[in-house]
Every structure is written in C-alpha cells, then in structure tokens.
Amino acid sequence: MTTTTTTTSSSHILRHTSDFISGVLSQSELRRHLAATLRRETTPLCSQTTLRQLSLASDTIENAISSSSTSIRTSSLTLAEKLLLPLPELPLSSFLLSLLLFLSNRHVDSAVLLLQIFHSNPSLARSEIAPVLYDHLFSLHLLPVFRWFDEHRTRILSESSSDASDYSITEESVVLPCTKLLSRMSENQASKLRELEREYQEAIDQNCRVVAVYFKEVLTSKSSEASISPPLLTLKSTEDVDGGKNKEEIQESQMSVLENGRYNPIWSERETSIEFLSSTSSSKSSHINYYPQRVSPRILKRQKSSKDSAPVYMKSTSENRPSLDGNLSSSSSDSEAESEDDDKNVALLEPRQSQSHEQMQPNLKEFRGSPEYHMAEYDNPPPGTAKNTPPKDFVCPITSNIFDDPVTLETGQTYERKAIEEWFKTGNSTCPITRQKLQNTQLPKTNYVLKRLIASWKEHNPNSVPPSCESPYEESKAVTKTIKVSTLPKDVVKQATVDGIISELRYAINNLYMSDILEESEMAVLHIEKLWREVNLGVDIHSMLSKPPIINGFMEILFNSVQPRVLRAAVFLLAETGSRDHSVIQTLTRVDTDVECIMALFKKGLTEAVVLLYLLKPSTTSLAEMATPESLLAAFNKEEENLVPICLKPKTAALLLFAQVIGSSEERIASSAAKCVFSEKAIGNIVASLEAEWAEERIAAVEILLRCMQEDGTCRNTIAEKADLSPILESFTGATDVECLKIVQFFSELIKLNRRTLNEQILRFIKEEGPFSTMHTLLICLQTGLQDQCPVMAGLLLQLDLLVEPRKMSIYREEAIDTLISCLRNTDFPAAQLAAAHTIMSLQGRFDFSGKSLTREVLLKRAGVDRSPGYLEQVLQINSFYPETEITPEEEKAADDWERKIASVLVSHEFGILFEALADGINSRNPELRSACFISATWLVYMLTILPDTGVQGAARVCLLKQFITKLNSAKDIHDRVLSMLALNSFLHFPDGFHDLTSYTKDILKGLRELKRISPLTSEILKVLVEENESKSDIWIHKELIRVDCSENGEVPSLICFKNKLFSGHSDGTIKVWMVKDTSFHLLQEIQEHLKPVTSLVISESGDRLYSGSLDRTAKVWSIGKAAIHCVQVHDMKEQIHNLIVTDSISCFTAQGAGVKVQSWNGESKLLNSNKYVKCLAHVHGRLYCGCHDSSVQEINLDTGNVSTIQSGSKKLLGKAYPIHALQLHGELIYAAGSSLDGSVIKMWDNSSYRLVGSLQTGLEVRAMAVSSELIYLGGKGVAVEIWDKTKHNKLDTLQTATNSRVLCMSLDRNEEILVIGTSDGQIQAWRVN
C-alpha cells in the first residue's frame, strides 16, 4: 500500500469559498463592514479617481443584489465589471469582483479572486476579512508552521528549567498559546519570545501566499488535481541556544496525516497539540497512534526513587480525558515550563505534606479496607469495588468515557455522538471499530434505551459516577480519587490526621492573604486547591475559605498573577465556595473592580471564570458591555475536556449568561447578541443544549433560539432539522408560567417553515411525544395565562387540535377560538389585540424561508398580481442561495388542505362572530392592527367562495361589505385596493351578494378603474357591474373642470397628457405646459420656439422626452423637468410635419405629399407607402398604421417595409375625397374615424386578423377620437363631444363644448379620469370622468 500526501481538491476549495461568499451576499451589514475595512486598507494605495471608481462599482453591485428585475441585475453586473476590470489588483477590487462573478454563476473565477486577497494582504484576510475561510482551508496546510513555532517557543521556555523538581511529567506537556507566558522569565527569554513572535507572523503571511497560489493552481488547472504537488512551506528559525540561523523547507506530506492521506482533528487538535518530551531530550516521538485508544490512568512517573510516593497534588485532574496514546499522560499544567516551575515551587511545601501523608496512611488503610492499597496506584480498584466499574457497553470506545449521547450505527457499534461526528467530519465513512464501509453517515437518533440503562446504573452506583441532579451545583466529577476522613474520629490517630490537614490548610490560608511575596501566595492557592480536591473535610473548609479576608486574598491573586494554573485554581475555589455560601458572592459584588477583574480574565481566555461570573449575577447591561456576547459564545463552543472540572460546567454558565443578554429588554442589546450567534455559527451547539439534563439550561437554549428565529428567520430550518424536542416537552410539564410562554413561543415560531408537511410533522410530534398530554397542559396555561400571552397559546392549541379532521365539537378548539376573538376585541390590551390579529393571519399556513406569513402575497396572486416588489426581491435572493426551497405540488396540496380546514373552523365558529371582531379591528387607529385584520378578513371572505355555505356568508357581508368598499376607494397602498377588490368579487358569488353590490355600483366603479392595469380580475367585476346595468348614463358622470381661452395663440391643433401634466401645441408655434391638480389647471410654462403651428406632440417611450413637430419643417426634442421643458435638440425634417410618430431610433411623419417619411435620428431617411396620401398615423410594437385620404387603412412593418391593407380605399365621388381623420389603437382593436360612405363613421378591426368587429353610426363629422377601457369619445364639427359604449356600441351621453367650433384634438390621462380637448377657436376644455 502506498501512502499519498495530503492534497486539496477543487471541489473542497469551491465549497468553502462559495459558503463564505454566499454568507456575505445574504448579509448586507457584513458586506458593508468588509467593504469599509478593505477601503480603509486600499485608500493609501490608490488615487482618488480609483477610489471613486471602486465606490461606484460597489454601489452598482449592491443595486444588482437588491434588484428584483433580471434585466436590471444583469446590466448592473455588466457595468460593475467594466468599472473593476481596468483597475489594478487591490484587495477591495478583488473582493468586489469576487462577489460580482459569484452572482454571475462564475464560481471558480470568484474563488480565485477571493484567494487573491490572501495573497496580497494575508494578515488582513485571515484576521478581519475571512477568518473562518482561513481556519477551514489554510490552517491544515500551515500545521508545520504551528509546530515550528511551538518547538522553538518550548526551547526558549525550557532554558530556565535547570532546577527541576523531583517530580516531572515524563511523556507530554500541553502546549499553550504564546500569550499565556509565565511571569518569572528572564529578559533574554522575553526578548527571544518577541523575536520569535515577529518571525512567526512573517512566516504565516509568507506561507499564506504560498498556499493561496497553490489553491488557485488547483482551481484553474485543466489537468488532474493529483498532478499538482502540495506547496513547500518556507520556515525561518530564530537564534536559539545553539546559535546561527538556518532555512528549511517542509513538504506538506510531513503533516499529521492518516494512512488514507486525511488530517483527523479528533486525534490531532491545534489547541491540544502534544509534544512528546522525555526527561533528557526534547526530540519528538517518531510514531503517533491515531486510532481510538483507552486512556491509562497511570499518568505520572516518579523521576528519582520509587521508594518515595508522589505528592497527592501531583495527580492530574485529566485522568478520564481522551488521549492520543494509552501510554501518554495529560498534565493539568498548560506547558512543560509551567509544570516544571510549579512543581519546583510546590516542593517547598514537601516537608509538611509528607508528614501529613504519613499520618494519613493508617487511616487510609482502615478506610479502604485493604492494607496493601496505595494512592499512586488508584487505577487498580481495591477489593469490593469492582461492582462499581461501569460495564464496557456503557463506555464509548473512542472517548473511553461513559456515554452521554449514545448513537448506534448500522454495524451495531455504539459511539458518543460528538466523537463519531468528528470521525465523519474528517472524511471517514467507515465504522471505527469494524472498519466496515457505511451506507449512510447521517447519524440516527439517540439510543434512549441505552441512555436510560446508564442513568439507572448511575443511580445504583452513586460512589462511582456523579449523582443525577437537576442542578449542576450538586454535580462533582470524580476526576481524582477522593480521600474521605471522618469528621468525628474514633481514635487519636484519625483525630491527629484531621488536625494536621486543617493545620496545613490554615498555614496555606495565612500565606494567601498575609504574604507580601506573590510566589508564596500563588503556591498557597495551588495547595488549597489540592486539599479541596483530594480531602473532604465537610463544612469546615467552606467556612474557613468564605471569610472576606480570604476572598480578598483570592482576588489579589486574580489581579496580579499571570500564571494560568494559579488563576484557574483561584477561580475554581471562589466558584466552589460561592456556590455553597452566598456571603462569598456578596463579598465579591461589594467592589465593582472585583467583578471587572473577573470579566477581564474571562475575555482574555480564562474560560472557567464564566462560572464565577454567572454566580455573581451581573446586570444585563454590564454583562453585555464588559463580557461581550462573542466571548460568551467562544466559551460555550469550547471543548469541555480542555477545562478544569468545576461546580458548574463553563458551557452551561456561558449559555445561561448569554440567555440573560439576549433576553434583555433593550432591543439594541438583544438584537446585537442574536446577530453574534449567526456570525459565530453557534446555532448547532445551542440546539444541542436543548437535550441538556438541567431544565434551566434547556429553557435558556429555547430563549436564545427563539430570539434568533425572530431576528433572522432563515435559521428556522436548521433548528427544525437538528433539534430534539422531547426534552423540551419534558420541561413543559413542570415549567413556570414564564418558561411555559417561552416554550410555546418557540414552538409557534418553529412551525413557520416554508413547507407545510414539515410543519405538520413537528405539530404531530409536539402533540404525541410529550410525557403528558401537551394539549391539556396548553389548555391549562391558556386558561390561567395573562391576556397578552394567550393569543400565541391559542394559536398553537388550535393547530394541534386540527391535525385530525375537525370534529363537530372540541373543547380545545372552542377555547382557542374564543380566546383569539376575546383578545382581538379587548381594546384595554393593545398588545394582545395585535398578537391575536397576527396569529389569525398566520393560521393560513404559508410562510417564506424567513418565517414571514405569505397570506397577503397569496391573496394578491389570486387577484392576478404575482407578488409585491419586496417579496419578489426576497424570493430572488433566497432562490440564489437556497434552490431547494422550491415548493412541490405535494407541498402545495398540503397547504391547500390545511387552509380549507383552518378557515372552515374559523368562519363557522358561533355563526361568523369572528367577522365582527375583524371589522372592529379594521376600524382601529393602530395601523399594524388595521392591516392584519384587513388581510385576515380578505382571506376568510375569499375562502367562503370555496367552502360549503354554512349560513355565515350573510354575516360576513353585513360586517365587511362597506369596509371593503371604503378601502377600495381610500387606501393609499394600491395592493390594499386590489385585496378589497378580491373580497368584493367574492361577495358577487354569494346568493344575495350581487343585489347588495349594485346599490354601491358608483362607489365601486370609482375605485376599480385605477386597477385595470394591475389585475385582470377588475374586468370580470366590471363586466358584472357595468355591462349588466341598463342605465350606464347614470354610472358615467363627466364633470367639467376647466375652460381656458388661448385664442391669442390661435388654434389648438395638438394636446397630450402625461402624468400630472398637460402639454398643448398652438398655431402660432407656442407650446404650453400645464399642471393638472385636483380640479384645477395651472400654467407652468409658455415657450415659443417653433415659427409655425405645432401639429404633433409625442412623449418618448422612456417618458423623459417630449417631441414636437411643426409646419416650420422642424422637430424639436425637449427635456421634461418638474416645472418646465427645455429644448435639447432640433432636427431639420426638410418638409412640413402634419403627423408625427416617434420611437427610440426613428421618427415617422406625414408631409404635404404622398407616403410616410421615415427618418432615423442620425439623418438617414426613406419613403414608405408612396402610393398613398396619408392623413393620420398610429404606432404599436414596430407596426405603423396609416389612415389615408382615399378612406383606406393600411399597416406597415417598419422593419421590412411590407404594407398590408386593412380597409381598401374608394374613388372620389363628385370630385370629393373621404379621408380617415382619426386613427386609434386600444387593446387588440383598431379604431378608424372617417366619412359615412356606408353609413358607419367609426369602424373597428381586430389588429391581428384585420377582421371587422364593429362600427358606430353617427351624424357627427368626426375629426378627433379618444378611446378608454369602456368608452369611446368622438369630437368634430359642432358643439358636442359624443360618448359611446365601447362594448355595446350605443351612445351614452353628449358633452357640450364652449363654442360652436371644431374639435381638433383630444387626449385622456393615464388613469382615464380626465378628458381634454382643443378647438379651432383656441379653447382648451377638460372634464373629470366619475
């Protein structure tokens, strides 16, 4: 078998880089922070022009991310790429290009540019930009650098170890980070350490660049990945005791690897790296066993004579921890130098200790019941204690500890969950014991049968394992053997032993707070800790240590000592005494600086201090400011085996403190803490705490996860996937009212997943898996809970009850709905009202990926509006990173079934009483309550058209009809008006609904006209309300707004409405700009730049330009401002312009002669339809329609020039022509106004088939025409404007003009609410359509 070196695949690199960039794109705050950091580093390196270009590119990429339009997004990315490509390779430009290319699905190029940041500025990249990416990708390859640093650092520290004590750790020492140095070092050592630290940083930066280049080669190589050799790392060594400098290259294959070439963090962790040192040599062992091994408890060796027994305090507290090898020991010290130094100092107490131990030997023999028992050989159990040894089936073969969370694989082997997870994470897919290939590496649920057996065994063997307690204060891990001495001795020997130990303890206590020498006080702390752990003196030791002077002595140590072991010992003693005696906590909290000192030590890495911090119960504000949430999460994520055993697990204390911070009443503090959970990626560890043995820890985890879901609902799916809800249900039964509320809120948030089937699975688990009836417990909480707590409980109870088909009667359902209605109508509790309204709205059952209710969006879709813009943007972003969220037909069916079920029970409750409560809510002054009630009412009214009629339709109509009509006409939000229209359309399906609606026809039509372009449903309602109404003249009311005399400027040959403005062209060449506001017109501008009549006015497709054509043979282009227009371009058309059509690239106009002139804006021109004299023009979608002098109508394809005839022309009769005077396009029809040769003045054709579909007969000589969605307006000679029904082709009304003159032009505004005409005698007249 050949051994391969460790390589990194391109897929592995892409996975980690894609995860990082995805996270950046999904978090706007993170993007801005990273961009600001990179900009700060880039500013000194480039010019102001480059900085502006980078800033513009950054804004453009942000626009692409936030835009819901595909075209805008594509154009933004293209523009940003053009801005960034010419720039030099700067960290900021590489970062922006990486985001851009990732959005363009060019993931390899994106990853290469991201790695470029590590090449150009490795220090910034690994510390501030992408530390997680550095940990996942680079750290593995840099392990030789870490080992190099540890080796040289150990050499420097070992220079002062010549005076070694009699006892030393012979086989290993745990390597500490470089910042945890001993206080007693020479100036030469300190100088060497500083130089080593500087060279270490240089080596990390240099080799980061090397590894980054290697990664880029792997990504861009077209050959196989195996052909690319791992990089060679260059290392420098400092001047050490041997002198001189050397340079060495270490291949990556020298790293700790398994035979299969994988690095295994279970057996070789960076923070617990092991150096194999003998007593005479610092060389490393040549062989390391990486497979799981049992840990031998023989961890200490006598260095001199085997006759003397080792002092008790040298026994390590890490006896039961996992080790790399059964022959290795795990010292309680943090480094070899520290261990030797501590051993040397502790040896000063040797005479007193040896005397005490000699006195204790007889007592120990009697106590143990065996004259041959020796403390140093505690791995051999004394006679009579074998029954307390745990069965081998209760012990994990990897960790050698009793199972805490056992999982059984398909091979039948059982392992600790965390250990086997680490095994899989390193790339292994086999069973560690059998080496059998596993079909599935997804871990099963906890083996609860085995877990219960272990718990039962612990209860029957209390002396061998920690007792099962609800409170962790009562837990005491037996890491070392306890020496039990009776506090009531039966003989003089025993009494002398106790007196000697107490005397020794008092001596140490005196040294602690009386000595002026720091070293003596530090050794006293270590001695006291040793006595505490190994000798149980009952209450005496507690009372001796709880005195204020002793506590102050411990605090002095915490203030002044820099030795980690001493600091841990002091914290341990303070925490143990404080957990038993509250006066200790009172002593500590009297002085603010004491609390600040403990917080500072915790933030600097003394993780055990978090336990003492928890006991001090600091305020939430001070906790959030001094012990940052990041520090608490770091302590929570730390491996427990690396920590000193203490009264409360540091992980538990950190979790409880973090729950205190995240539950703060200050939104700023709570929100910041929740965001830290996402940035530190701690969700998984917090979810694991839901299975904690202590109920308070489980409740704290529930509170944290609840806040995280409220802050960023995208974590909800992760929680639902990983959480075991059984322990929470166990806590629910005996919880307090506050804890019950948190659990209910947690469940309510958790079932807001974007898949209905998953929601129902969780609901079914909650209902069926609890130790007692969850529904009955909920009912009791509901009946006894506070008013503002009831809605969320009622919502959860109602959903649990409806998991099965609704029964005719259910006490749970009745109580839940009654509670929701009661809370909704209780104006004395606004918070309860709002909670009830939101609960009812969310019962519809559809949610997006973040847990937001989609009731409003679903209703808009049913009304013909796909989604609101905000929702479309959100869906676009979610689909970019979570393509699996696409809803399947099965999911949609499950959602529809649930919606029908829940709506049925809501509307049927007490004959529709819920509609009355919703109507009251719609009238509320609270806008949020008003909106929620309106959406719920719309949803339930819509569902009445689907559900069988149970007699509640009338109640809904009576309560809500007027509300919806008012909303239709007065709502500012256009989507609220659409929802009102959807509800009114539902009323039309009720038996008596049409009759009720017809009495409000005028009010409804007023609101419907503005919705025609938004929802196709509008046309259906209009068809029912308008077309079935016989008296349409009563419906359509035209109220005159204004008459303006412009006769001083001659005729008014052209008009056009645009937004809230009116543009009019006059025969003296004047153009006037009017502001249309309510019922008045205000003249904003009057400008005369044409020399002859302005015959045509056209608005560009973009809406920012006005084109004017004149008989002076020019066409002018005007920029449209807020209050005026400005001429920006003049085109010489060489002929008079009678009619003008404009597109983005060309203009079409009719002149005095035959044909249509087509002229591009660059000056090229051509003549189309040269055989016809064209009177009027119309244009749509690249097709030009011509009304000719001979009464013919033709269509011209502007791309090809092909001409099609819609209506053939006629010859002149008696020398008189019959031209087409007006041509309009609306919808799918062409409207032409000509002379009455065949009795029809107005004719209508289908614009696709040219089929004649209708005609109008009138005696009016039509010269102008306007067409709306329902009406046709005709103007000509005489004193009237005729109004015709567009569908039935009958005349509805006649509008009287101001004078007996010709109507030359007319125009409708965009909303079809204002009609404006211009006459031959210079009059402008307008009507409002109601």
Automatic annotation (TrEMBL):
> Gene3D superfamilies of this UniProt entry?
YVTN repeat-like/Quinoprotein amine dehydrogenase, Zinc/RING finger domain, C3HC4 (zinc finger)
Q: Which Pfam families match?
A: ARM_LIN (PF23568), ARM_LIN_2nd (PF23654), ARM_LIN_C (PF23628), U-box (PF04564), WD40 (PF00400)
For this UniProt entry, the molecular function terms from Gene Ontology, in alphabetical order, are: ubiquitin protein ligase activity
What does the UniProt keyword field contain? Answer: Transferase, WD repeat
The record lists the catalysed reaction(s) as:
S-ubiquitinyl-[E2 ubiquitin-conjugating enzyme]-L-cysteine + [acceptor protein]-L-lysine = [E2 ubiquitin-conjugating enzyme]-L-cysteine + N(6)-ubiquitinyl-[acceptor protein]-L-lysine
Q: Where is the signal peptide?
A: none
Q: In which pathway does it act?
A: Protein modification; protein ubiquitination
Q: Which Enzyme Commission number(s) are on file for it?
A: 2.3.2.27
Q: Where are the WD repeats?
A: 1087-1120, 1296-1330
CDD domains per UniProt: RING-Ubox_PUB
The record, for InterPro entries, names: ARM-type_fold, ARM_LIN, ARM_LIN_2nd, E3_ubiquitin-ligase_LIN, LIN_N, RING-Ubox_PUB, Ubox_domain, WD40/YVTN_repeat-like_dom_sf
Q: Which SUPFAM superfamilies match?
A: ARM repeat, RING/U-box, WD40 repeat-like
Query: Where is the stretch described as Disordered?
Result: 283-344
Q: Which GO terms describe its biological process?
A: protein ubiquitination
Group of enzyme by EC: transferase
Q: Where is the U-box domain?
A: 389-464
PROSITE patterns the UniProt entry points to: U_BOX (PS51698), WD_REPEATS_2 (PS50082), WD_REPEATS_REGION (PS50294)
Q: Which PANTHER family match?
A: RING-TYPE E3 UBIQUITIN TRANSFERASE
Q: What is this protein called?
A: RING-type E3 ubiquitin transferase
